[in-house]
Amino acid sequence: LAQAEIKLLHAQVNPHFLFNALNTISAITRRDPDKARELIQNLSHFFRSNLKQNINTVTLKEELAHVNSYLSIEKARFTDRLEVEIDIQPELLDIKLPSFTLQPLVENAIKHGISNMLEGGKVHIYSEAHPQGHLITVEDNAGSFEPPKENHSGLGLEIVD
């Protein structure tokens, strides 16, 4: 069942994210064509990673590349409202983890936290030693999280629990 949920997440394309990404790129095209080209390449990388449905595990380095592709679009969209800090020890980059572990958490931090802030939004991805290995954390500075009361169709938090 968990593997089926992961495959579903891989195939899931958030139309709102795509719409927002294309609008952001469209707005940037005239004033900074090089930046727009870079964003298109990052968007392409992001969706290419989403479509690799047969990959169950990836290295942390690959997962962070996927997250960075996503973040490049969101940073262009939120401009100075979004700051990202990634503190991962280089020796952890080759560890294997389930694919699409971090990106849904980063997306939720932005969607439910940073997007509501007028300024000073920050997402921090970091690792720290833990008795059973290492703990990788995604946090934002938007305050406490209140789960929505209405039904939702997203799978992000359920899959990574």
From TrEMBL:
A Pfam family the protein falls into: His_kinase
Positions of the Signal transduction histidine kinase internal region domain: 4-82
Gene Ontology molecular function, alphabetical: phosphorelay sensor kinase activity
GO annotations of cellular component type: membrane
Keywords on record: Kinase, Transferase
Protein name: Histidine kinase
